[in-house]
């Protein structure tokens, strides 16, 4: 039974590689971002680069500052990502 508790405690692994929870724009890797619907490797790298230049995301709406991401893409990602 202790292994079940350990599995439940590994929440970050579940979020990192699946759709069981929102992906953090401020800490996700390019690979994690690439796994989001409508976000490919180029856009994922742009998100990481933006974060490195501007610091942590304060709002999902900040994605609008990244070329290739517009209002409809933000609407698609809302609920799947957190700042």
Topology, pairings included?
Blueprint: H1 2-9, H2 11-17, E1 23-24, H3 30-34, H4 41-54, H5 71-77, E2 81-82
Parallel strand pairs: 1-2
Q: Can you describe what's shown?
A:
The chain has 83 residues and is mainly alpha-helical. The protein has one domain: AF1531-like domain (DNA polymerase, domain 1, Orthogonal Bundle). The protein contains five helices and two strands; from the N terminus they run H-H-E-H-H-H-E. A two-stranded parallel sheet has the order 1-2. The longest helix has 14 residues. The N terminus is likely disordered.
In short:
This protein is mainly α and 83 residues long.
How many independent structural domains?
Answer: 1
Average of the residue pLDDT scores: 83
Number of DSSP strands? 2
Shape, please? globular
Rg to the nearest angstrom?
A: 14 Å
Query: H/E order of the elements?
Result: HHEHHHE
Instruction: Find the CATH topology.
Output: DNA polymerase, domain 1
- Compute the number of helices: 5
Oligomeric description of these chains: single chain
List keywords for this structure.
disordered N terminus; two-stranded parallel ribbon; about 80 residues; 2 strands; DNA polymerase, domain 1; 5 helices; mainly alpha
